[in-house]
Amino acid sequence: MSEATGYNRDVELNCNQAAGCCPMLIIFGGLPGVGKTAIATELARLTGALHLRIDSIEQAIRASGLGNHPLDDAGYRVAYAVAEDNLRIGRTVIADSVNPLQLTREAWVAVANRVRVRAMEIEVKCSDAGEHRRRVETRTSDIAGLELPTWKEVVGREYHPWDREHLVIDTAGQTVEQSVAAIREALAKR
Question: What was the pLDDT predicted at 145?
């Protein structure tokens, strides 16, 4: 397994060279408020990729009435299935979630491996704690009914360090456009 790409190089890739495209799974992770969704949304807009946002999926589950029970990993499981379906038909998929555990990161990579596409893992950080806190405390939700976490909840959240090579985007003092440009540059090198 390649640490840099998160996929098994021994697996023949599902790549339609004649059409000039290779679908891939772009896996975002990072604490709430670091800028993941803004970056993922802009990247999807520019590339035409499918944007899968766990917050949207989980809020839809809550709104259905099933949210009276703990969601656990339900939103992630739905997203894995939708990602796999879209990768199989040749769509690039951008997975947008906190992705806090090694278990969730491995599950995303497993999706890419099953479909035999590349996976690129991206961790978004904000190294300026004051800026990160300001963002968390001043942002508003664009998803009806979604309660955003407090700063205390963000810093107290379980979030395991990444144990393999991945692209790190630090949004402190960097615009969404600069972050997207850095990701597109890294994608072009693949």
Answer: 84
